[in-house]
Write a structure and sequence with these properties.
The protein is of the alpha+beta class. The chain has 4 helices and 9 strands, in the order E-E-E-H-H-E-E-E-E-E-E-H-H.
């Protein structure tokens, strides 16, 4: 099942328990890569407005992790952690993406995804593919029900505006 929101393509495959988010940016691979791997830049676009992201810790290397909080307009907080499993500079990285508490402890009530980010040079810039795979179809459904598609498309719009500067 495929959806396009603005320029963000979102494909859900419930049989494979996966969701793929694709967006092309008019920017070189190195800039798009940096936007996904530098916490000072990530904090500017990762939280879907009116939410915002704030990094507590980032160690972008295999075995490292990114611990961040998304802060809502009324001060509500949703913590997340990406554990980096593999990195191929300017091409891709793999991570385990999970909800957690402020200390990085897993929130077992919310789904965990195996995530791969793939960056591909195009004629006009860079295509970024965000591939998430879940353990169960119910986990994928839960993420979709939480508003993932709307949230990630807002984030992609924010990233595009940031890269235009």
């Amino acid at each position: 099942m495929e959806t396009v929101i603005n320029n963000t393509q979102i494909s859900k495959d419930f049989d494979k328990k996966s969701i793929v988010v694709s967006r092309e940016f008019n920017a070189p691979v190195e800039e798009v890569w940096q936007a996904y791997t530098d916490p000072k830049i990530l904090d500017q676009w990762w939280g879907p407005s009116p939410w915002r992201a704030e990094t507590k810790h980032m160690d972008f290397r295999v075995g490292g992790y990114w611990l961040y909080v998304m802060i809502g307009p009324q001060g509500e907080k949703q913590w997340g952690r990406m554990n980096y499993l593999a990195i191929d500079r300017y091409k891709s990285f793999e991570a385990e993406d999970e909800f957690c508490d402020e200390n990085g402890k897993l929130n077992a009530e919310l789904p965990v995804s195996k995530t791969q980010m793939v960056f591909t040079k195009t004629k006009t810039g860079t295509k970024a593919d965000f591939i998430m795979t879940y353990s169960t179809e119910a986990d994928l459904e839960k993420i979709v029900d939480m508003g993932f598609e709307q949230g990630i498309s807002i984030c992609m719009d924010q990233l595009e505006k940031l890269l235009e500067k």
